[in-house]
Specification:
96 residues; globular; 3 helices; three-stranded antiparallel beta sheet; mainly alpha
Amino acid sequence: MLGHPENNFKSVHIAGTNGKGSTSHIIASVLQSAGYKTGLYTSPHLKDFRERIRVNGKKIPKTYVCEFVKKNQKSFEPIEPSFFEYCAVMAFQYFF
């Protein structure tokens, strides 16, 4: 439905039991310092949902989250995505 936004950028996927948050923030910081536009998608959030999705350290705007949900809610209903899937595709779309 969204044209595979995950294919529009290079990514680093960090998996494992411990240290993913620290590792991802360090990698994002290094890449950003080197001049790259850096998108970061992490979970969980501590206080604000928007902490999960950042570009160059700045949280996704509330307006983007609201508009994304409004625009895609009806299209997504038939496939019943999980919360994680919904958030991931929002992040991928935002990064592009």
